Request: fold
Amino acid sequence: MKTRFNATLAVALGALATVVVASVGWAATDPSPVIPLVVNGNLTLTDSAPAPANIPGLKTIYSGWLFRDPDTQAMQTDDFSNPGMTGVDAGQAEWATVDGTEGKSCASCHNGIESMKGLRASMPKVTKDGKLWSLEDFINGCRTNRMGAKAWGWKSTEMKNMTAAISLQSRGMPVNVKTDGAAGPFWEEGKKMYYSRYGMLQLSCANCHEDHYGDHIRGDHLSQGQSNGFPVYRLSTGGLVSLQDRLFGCIRDTRAESFKPGSPELHALELYVASRGNGLSVEGVGVRP
Ligand code: HEC
Ligand code: HEC
Reply:
């Protein structure tokens, strides 16, 4: 079953690789019309914006939401129909749960989870001692150094729920990651990765998400690969997916040995990808097919 699926996928992607290499036929297509993403009838999110000056490959940036079919789009416009909100509720419960040898919960030090407002919009960011940290690193840093609790796995349900609950606090705020100063070298590394060809298919991120967004590969509608909707709820697998897990999957699908979530490579790539969406709204929890 799995082998057959992979073989089919390889044929589909192989066909795309041929098209890309031959440089004929396809080009990026902007969504038209660009419909507004309004949540719960009262919060209008920015789902398109002029591209940041340091992203010359794009004129306009678009949220991945715009590329989804109307039914999937509708689920994200109402918290009662957004299946990702179950994870948010669970994350909020974890926030108040005591764990570890110090007898503390997140709330013991940070009070309400609203204190995390704005944080998701600036993730990942460089710490005082020069490390590029994602939200997951900050959460595990507090768990291990301040609570005496075990680190959560990057793909654990607890971690995904907590990142969803924290991300929701920034819903509607513009993505605004730093790309210069201490972040500069990480951003350059991520940019280099974005334009590098990976795997047997020899495809770069840009080949799909810059040169061909708006096109279809076997029923999948290619977006610009923006990260403002993450973590997202994926209907096909019935659960939340973290951004680095998605990046892992995109590299693996070029039939390459991929980088692990939490690796330095995926941190740099996460920063660069986030910066391509500077100006789009954080969506809290996106919904994907
Ligand atoms: C013992 C107190 C304590 C506990 C318990 C604690 N934290 Fe923290 N947390 C801190 C301190 C202190 C900082 C650093 C604040 C700073 O540098 O501005 C911090 C920083 C953070 C940051 C980064 C904030 C930023 O603005 O950069 C996040 C995210 C975070 N904590 C999440 C959590 C979560 C989630 C939990 C529970 C799993 C938790 N913390 C538990 C004390 C705590
Ligand atoms: C063979 C084409 C292809 C390549 C190469 C590729 N991706 Fe993707 N990517 C997809 C498809 C298909 C999806 C799911 C539909 C969509 O949102 O585009 C996706 C989704 C994504 C998403 C989620 C977008 C959302 O809103 O849900 C991100 C982020 C992403 N890709 C980043 C990358 C990065 C970074 C690279 C380079 C390491 C990359 N992709 C390489 C095809 C590709």
About this structure: The mean pLDDT is 92. The radius of gyration is 19 Å. The chain has two domains: 33-81+177-288, 85-168. The pocket of heme C (ligand 1) is lined by residues 104, 106, 108-110, 119, 138-139, 142-143, 146-147, 162 (CB under 6 Å).
